[in-house]
Specification:
The chain is of the alpha+beta class. It has helices at about 5-15, 20-30, 65-70, 105-120; strands spanning about 90, 95, 120, 135, 145-150, 155-165, 165-175, 180-185, 190-195, 200-205, 205-210, 215-220. Mean pLDDT is about 80; it is low at about 75-80 and about 90-95.
């Protein structure tokens, strides 16, 4: 209930309907009993719901706990045929075969895929019913080079790369137009924003806000070097 009313209000604003119901929904939301706080638990491996068995790949180098979230998703002892009796098995490519009622292996793989996506690029609003905020490579291990092009909330197709612990540039293709909010990938630095390849403005601060038009390509880089010659690998 704490989530559905802000979402209903936001959907109503976007669709331009039920304006008369918005204050009613807001009043209900404002008078809901506050939810009790739950104790926080440690963060486990992406896509893994059962722990304690074999199957994980041991991390190497720095940030071992963070890397274990990606490498430990197959630590599912109850789903691995360790006794060799022909049950569900884990393959060398890290996939598993589990057939029959409740065949849930695809769910585990989906959980891993979702975790990787949200780690490379997340767009959750910072409050229920708020606007999406793009965050890049927040919990991705800095020693793992990576490049991606992913779609996010708001219709933004975002491309970026991490090489030797450094993000070179961020490219945002606005497929629908509208405002974009981006957590500064280079904290403390002033950035140059390019619109369709041409320098347009300077941005600074922890949260960057800028308008976009449909099919516009936004490129953001730290101030100083030009965007010439830079590209996503």
């Amino acid at each position: 209930m704490h989530m559905i009313f802000p979402l209903a209000i936001r959907a109503s604003q976007i669709l331009g309907v039920d304006a008369d119901l918005r204050p009613v929904w807001q009043e209900i939301k404002d008078n809901l009993v506050e939810l009790p706080r739950r104790p926080t638990r440690g963060r486990g491996a992406y896509g893994a719901f059962v722990y304690g068995g074999p199957g994980a790949i041991e991390p190497m180098g720095a940030e071992p706990e963070l890397k274990s979230r990606f490498l430990g998703f197959n630590r599912l002892g109850s789903f691995i045929d360790t006794a060799g009796i022909g049950g569900a098995q884990i393959f060398r490519n890290r996939l598993r075969l589990r057939e029959g009622p409740g065949a849930i292996d695809a769910e585990h793989i989906g959980g891993l895929t979702s975790g990787i996506h949200e780690t490379m690029l997340s767009s959750f609003p910072e409050e229920v019913g708020g606007e999406p905020v793009l965050r890049l490579l927040g919990d991705w291990p800095k020693s793992w080079d990576a490049a991606f092009r992913l779609l996010t909330r708001g219709g933004f197709l975002v491309s970026a790369s991490l090489e030797k612990g450094r993000i070179d540039l961020v490219e945002i293709r606005s497929q629908a137009g509208g405002p974009c909010r981006l957590r500064n990938p280079w904290p403390g630095k002033t950035l140059t924003l390019y619109r369709n390849g041409k320098p347009a403005e300077s941005l600074s601060g922890p949260l960057l806000k800028f308008p976009t038009t449909r099919n516009e390509v936004i490129t953001v880089i730290p101030e100083g070097p030009t965007a010439s010659g830079r590209k996503i690998p």
